[in-house]
Amino acid sequence: MVYVAAYLFIGAIVATVILVRSDRPKEKEIGYFMLISDPFLFWLPLLLWPLWLALLAIPVTLPEEKPMPPAPDPKNMIGRTGVVVIPLAPTGRIDIEGAYRDARAESGSIAAGTPVVVCAHGMGHELVARAAPAPR
Questions:
Q1: Does position 49 have pLDDT exceeding 70, yes or no?
Q2: What are the tens digits of pLDDT across the range 51-89?
Q3: Who wins on pLDDT, 7 or 42?
Q4: How far apart are CA 45 and CA 53, in angstroms?
Q5: CB 113 within 8 Å of CB 91
Q6: Rounded distance between C-alpha atoms, residue 95 and residue 100, angstroms
Q7: What predicted TM-score, i.e. pTM, was given to this entire model?
Q8: Nearest to 77 by CA among 96, 63, 58
């Protein structure tokens, strides 16, 4: 009985310290919810405090999301050059100035890495042809 009382007492101290010192808003929300919602949920963190403490000790770092470049206006795409990302056989994806676009080959298929030029804008895709090689 003494062990159970000591276990619950340590659990109460750990739960209180976590709620007071937490700088993560979600942890405080969960803690307050457990305290005010239901007597069973109040006792749950006291019983599972070793697990709760272990989970909070693990650092949570999320990768930063890179902002997407603004999509170019489809009307201004004609004449722009890009590179094939997913082979066009006859449809695939191209990269124009960092923005990925669905594309359709004007004729045949075009391998990945091939430079292309936009000829027209279709329904949700660009019509492209192989870009002419640069003059030497």
A1: no
A2: 766 666 677 676 777 777 666 676 778 888 999 999 998
A3: 7
A4: 10
A5: no
A6: 5
A7: 0.47
A8: 96
User: From CA 107, how far away is CA 109, in angstroms rounded?
Assistant: 7
Q: Kindly report which listed range (33-37, 40-44, 54-58) carries the lowest average pLDDT score.
A: 33-37
Give the pair of three-digit tokens for residue 55: 């989970």
pLDDT tens-digit series, residues 108-117: 899 999 999 9
Looking at the DSSP bridge assignments, the partners of residue 110 are 88
Q: Please give the Cα distance from 82 to 43 (Å, whole number).
A: 61
Query: Is residue 63 reached through a cis peptide bond, with omega within 30 degrees of 0 on the bond before it?
Result: no
Length of the chain: 136
* Cα–Cα dist 57/47, whole Å: 18
106's tokens? 């004007």
**Under a CB-based contact definition with an 8 Å cutoff, are residues 78 and 121 in contact?**
yes
Q: Is 124 helix (H, G, I), strand (E, B) or coil?
A: coil
| Cα R_g (the chain), whole angstroms | 29
Q: Are 69 and 101 in contact (CB under 8 A)?
A: no
Residues whose CB falls within 8 Å of the CB of residue 11, separated by 6 or more in sequence, listed in order: 45, 46, 47, 48, 49
